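Input/output pair, single chain:
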Amino acid sequence: MDTLVSTQQCKHCEKVFFNRSLWQEHYDWHTAIQLQLGRVARGQSVNEPESRADTIDQINSLVSRLQLQSDDVDRKGRPDSLRGENRIESNLLPTRAQMEQYLQNAIADFPPYESGGIENVVSEPTIKCPDCDFRFYTREQRDEHHLSKYCRGNEIAVYIMTIDSSALGGYRVYKESIPFESKTAHFKCGKCHNFFTTDTERKQHETSHPIEQRKCPHCEKILQSQYELEEHYLWHDDMHLSQHIERRVEGMKQQQGASQAWNNIGADITDPVTASPRHVQNPWNRKGGFPQYDGDVVAISLFSAEDLEMRYAPDGVLKDLSKETAHLRLSSGVSNKVDDSTTQKKRSYRKSLKSLLGGRREDTSRSPSRHSQRTSLGSSPNVSAARDLPKNDVQEHMEWQLFYRYSRPAWVLTHDRSQHVEVHAAEDHRTHESHPSRIPSLSSRLSPEELQSRFESLMGEIADYATHGAVANKAELEGLMSEITSAELMSRAHLEKLYAWFENERKQDSSNNGEIETLSGLPVLGYGSPSRVLARDHARRARLITGQDLSRIACHAIGPPRGSLDVVRMALGRCGEAALAQGRMRDAERTYTEMFRAMRALYGDEQLQFILLAHLASNVYKKNGNMPNAAGMYMQALRCSQGLYGLRSVNNFTMLTNLAVYYEDIGRLDDAAALYRRSARGRINAGEKEDALMNIQELSAVYRKMGKDQDALRFIQEAYTGYTQVVGPDHRMTLLTLNNLAAFLFAAGSTERAQSLLGPALPAMTRVLGLDDPVTWGSVCNFVMYYAGSSFPPAITRVIEQYMAQNTPASLKVLNGIGDHYGKNNLTRKAMETYRALHGKSMSLLGPSHPETWSSLYAYAYTLDRLGETGEALKQYRLLVSQPQARSLLPRSQGDGAQAAVQDLSRKQAALDKEKAEWGLTTAHKCSLQACSNSTLRFCSDCSLVRFCSPACQREDRSHHGACIPSVTLTESAFTIVQSPLDKSSVVKEAEFLFTQLQLPRRPSCESARDVFINPNNFTTIRISKRPSHILSFQANPGLDLRFMIHRSTPFEWLTPKTSNMLCMLGDVEDSFIVVAPGQSMMKGQVAARDKVFGTESGNVDIPDQNLVEFAQTAAPGDGEFVLGFMVTEWAV
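Output:
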């Protein structure tokens, strides 16, 4: 009785066996079926190959019928089928027209955010690609993706056999999935031999086939046609070979004493079909004509792993490859004649003409290679004669040889049994020029800068060489770079080692040039015709590819003939990092651009290409202020990201946001809004809610610039609500958005609503974020800027006091905002005091070399001027004008304003000085305090009407307190207009009246006559004096509500135009003034206007105080017109 062991499953029909003898019987049964079907038995020996000399001679005989596909190569040598392959052009920066087209494509590809906030359910893309996980919004998007290399369904399966001495059979087979996109790769019908340019046409055609059910004798599977059954038999061929090899490997293990169970061979580490090995040596640089060492590529197949084993290891052991003619060398005869492109084109033209005239096709041989054990579809006895395939079918199993020529870079595809040779121009024509071996002499005294410069120059040469040349000793270079990195500082010894390595590489390359044409080719197994290869993509569709496509697929699978991307990245990456660190943006741009092109030329990972595009945009162009180029890189990165990751990737929305910022900066607001809306919606779908809310907030700012205030308000409110829900009311982004919302409401005139939102949040901002956070002090500045009134709410006052107590940059911002608030609300003295404090803090914190220091001094001088403090304002303006540093740091408007103010105030000060001198105020007189005998030039600091030698005397003279009336002169006044009288006769009449009434010895002569017009809305108090020995007459307009008097130190009495029409001051009166003030009703209007601004309740005020005079001096004139208030005439006797 047989012993039961672990289970074994049949690969043909998936039956499970627990008995070894039963398994053997079942295996023999499948073998018998294979023989009945006419399939080649897997255990028989393989025909011995022909001699290499015979094969080379046969290829040489084909040169006379060489077919150069010149119609598939443009003037630059780039195949038409590859022009649309890459989404990124060779020139990284798109042209203006391309940029516009890409922008419109981006707007069309992504749907916009409409409204409703982040909690609103936004529809996802629902149209799924049938071959991968990507989803799309439109069928057009899906169809474009479905035929691109970014669709997983278009990946071509390539099986690669390499030598591996650690495996029992001496080989290893692994699978690579190669992204593929080509206009010439047609789709084959799965039920007949027809091909179609699109997959849709193929599917439509397949529905036209009648159903002819066929049953597989191996697995009893029902197929829909005999054609499909024949293709199904190929799979059974592979399964039968796989089981045969497993049996052989089991026997070898038993001979070596292996103890593993017979059914677990597939789990052994020596299983010949495994994942990709660590090291693969492609055949392009291999000498000797056949693979010999571990990692050498034996062949590739576009059909299956068993296809390679059937050819090179039919019994589970790798054959003697030295006897294989498939690894023949491309002879010099073929090589030389291939170079004669003129002859090739003439023969191609003759062939085309012959075909047009109905001549016989030269490529008629369809017999499979004698080396192949594969049966051609249609050769089985079970296929009826009526189903014979026509001559243009590609279902024959064949072997091709792919060579790369170095002297004039080109791919050569041969198929010796069908007398077919093709030549395709390589995508990269450049080759590295060999230079004589020479290590430059290095001075023993090289500065670190010179060493770094030499190092970067050498790295550039190495990168250029590694892009177009063969690097033999990459490991040594990696060791040298690691040594330099660990040392941190470049040394002369390091540089010498690098030069030595590079020269050694170039020597080897130069010595190889003489043997370059004798290198071996790559065998390619599969189905097809001599000029076309049938490949299977990831979706199991049959694709018909050209020789040019095959060369590109081979380079993706096992590496290009020349170049080392790892060395390029190692060299240029180090140079790029150094250039960025030192701020050499042009060098960084050039270095990273060359790295990107090397990635393209050497089939680098497209994900790394996307990262490099984003790096170029953000860290090179954007940091250097080159926003147009940065936008171009962002656009290229967007297109790359769409292909690699699909429409739902967050990388897309990062690129869209960066592009939106660019278009906003250049004023294309419609495009910026469209991009922000698409980025916001995409980020909501991707779960990136905080970033989506930022996009919505930026969208609001764009709509505000466009004048669409309703949309702007709606979006900023949605952003604030969203932040409150997502991160909480006390989060920094929530408070920032609240400040932006309040600023919008302030600007829109909704002051009360803005204050109600922002005011209660300010104490929370200071508590959560601190006083120095820009959100906090920015919010405080916004609040005080738009707040109406002189006194702030208690909570805001406490926040302001905290800033006033600090000496930080944040406190300077707040002080400046408070000063602006006071100035805008006509609180000029408070504004002056605030700007004075601001200037002092700026000088101590920022120093005299900072622009804000001088701007604060300008504001201080300006408020002094508005207060009428001409002397002090002139002093500060002169300081600004006299300092060259201030003139260079101030804005031009402030510098010009200071210069003009100096001129105007100088004239005004001269007029004031002249006025004082004419009035006799420059002569010292006795102090008004009776107990004081001092003489003084000083006047009362409040009213400037009475002399006091000191503030103490001013305080002690209590009789003056009731008569201390603050006032300004006509020269200082901002609410009067002085003109010469138009009616000269009235002056003559007044002279006659004075001569008669005052009994003067002679008629007085008029020295000056002035008509004074006043604005009733802001008129307060004027003081008027005269020159000694002159007579001053004053006459008020009887229709105005005015009060006036002659001020003396004795008790005074107010007069009105109704009680007294004229006042006269004679020549013997000293230090006396005529004081003019508003009447009772006019006074009430002025007090009410001031109380409204200051937020006070003054009640009944009889005499204007200092605050009211300053308010009148700085307040806007209002809507009232100037009217004649009084006339002042000065007479000489």
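The radius of gyration is 49 Å. The longest strand covers residues 396-405.
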